[in-house]
Design goal:
It contains eleven helices and twelve strands. By secondary structure, it is of the alpha/beta class. The strands form two sheets. The chain has a seven-stranded mixed sheet, with helices on one face. The protein has a five-stranded mixed sheet with strand order 2-1-3-4-5, covered by helices on one side. It starts with a helix and ends with a helix.
């Protein structure tokens, strides 16, 4: 009778763990616990260690009386042990099917979970890992541009991105986010060798829901073009601005703060628009094109010290660019800036993405700009 009571307790415990995994999406409960418990039950189904020794001696000496001294085989333990081991194997396979999504929220809170039931194109096996910097960004840093709140943000980004990497070692990975581009690119610098299997973008104009970047290899999409000849850049200037126009056109007036010291290279598609990036192939092609241009500039004009990036694009491009920005041997210092449409300075702050000063905040001096204009 006692064995049945213990068995019932074990089954209830297992069901509670499964309920937490599916209802609360708590993946911190490891399937190792199921396997360990199942193995323990199997080992104890035939008695303790002394029982096993006595049985071995009985077999070796061809004597039957030793079996009378041992405990009966516990079928309850054996069956429950097998069930728990099967559950642990199933959980391992189930977790591998999950797409673990890194979601960076900086402007307002938006999660994929809210749209899964309404959108058949979204997998139900999504598990989100959110980096939420909304409050500290909007209430402190955006207002003051102070180093203290900035350090809190980048510290959280680094810690949470590394946690995501550890939690998503097995299975598929995905990305989504809506936050200042400098913070997204900075997050990307900690994902250098991480491959995202899926990218989710929010269609805010037509469907008001998420869509997945397509896997199709053949897809008609606008090509990324360079408006200036790299060889014609002013060699006396040691800085260059890369202005990337994909979701909206970056104008000359918006770049006026860079005019005195920087060459300006405009890269973009013919008709910038929201959600212009629709496929993974397009995303990777755009990323490669941008960094080929940066490397060509660096090789042709060896005196280049800083590349200032201003970017109007979807966040999937920003995260991929961040992953590519940390190459100190083939790239100059890269600084990514935040655009503020209503600010007196259109690009008031930026972040250094590589080199010895990686992560350093750059705040633009408004008075210095006014003197040079």
């Amino acid at each position: 009778m006692i064995y049945w009571i213990i068995g019932i307790i074990i089954v209830v415990f297992a069901l509670i763990m499964l309920w937490k995994i599916f209802k609360k999406k708590d993946e911190n409960i490891s399937n190792i616990a199921f396997f360990t418990l199942g193995s323990t039950l199997l080992l104890n189904a035939g008695g303790d260690k002394l029982d096993w020794i006595l049985k071995c001696l009985a077999i070796a000496n061809d004597r039957d009386y030793a079996f009378e001294m041992t405990q009966d085989f516990k079928w309850q333990y054996f069956i429950l042990g097998i069930i728990l081991i099967i559950i642990s194997i199933w959980l391992t396979c189930y977790k591998r099917k999950n797409v673990k999504i890194l979601n960076i929220n900086g402007y307002f809170k938006r999660n994929l979970d809210e749209y899964i039931e309404k959108n058949k194109d979204l997998s139900k096996n999504i598990r989100e890992y959110e980096i939420n910097i909304i409050d500290i960004y909007k209430r402190l840093f955006k207002v003051n541009l102070d180093n203290d709140s900035y350090q809190c943000i980048i510290g959280k980004i680094q810690e949470d991105v590394n946690a995501f990497k550890n939690l998503s070692e097995s299975g598929k990975k995905g990305y989504t986010g809506i936050a200042p581009i400098p913070f997204i690119m900075y997050a990307g610098t900690f994902l250098e060798r991480q491959k995202f299997d899926e990218y989710y973008e929010f269609d805010k104009k037509e469907k008001q829901t998420y869509y997945k970047l397509e896997d199709k290899k053949i897809k008609i999409y606008p090509k990324l073009r360079v408006e200036q000849e790299i060889k014609d850049l002013d060699k006396s200037k040691r800085d260059v601005v890369i202005a990337i126009s994909i979701t909206s056109k970056i104008t000359k007036e918006q770049l006026i703060q860079f005019n005195e010291k920087c060459n300006i290279v405009n890269i973009g598609i013919e008709h910038p628009c929201d959600n212009a990036i629709k496929s993974k192939k397009q995303l990777i092609e755009y990323t490669n094109k941008i960094f080929d241009i940066i490397q060509n500039i660096f090789e042709m004009h060896g005196q280049i010290e800083n590349v200032h990036i201003v970017c109007s694009s979807q966040s999937c491009l920003a995260i991929e660019m961040g992953k590519r920005s940390i190459d100190d041997t083939r790239l100059p210092q890269i600084i990514i800036y935040q655009f503020e449409a209503q600010g007196e300075v259109r690009y008031p702050w930026g972040i250094k993405l590589n080199g010895k000063e990686k992560g350093k905040l750059i705040v633009v001096d408004k008075e210095a700009i006014e003197k040079n204009v």
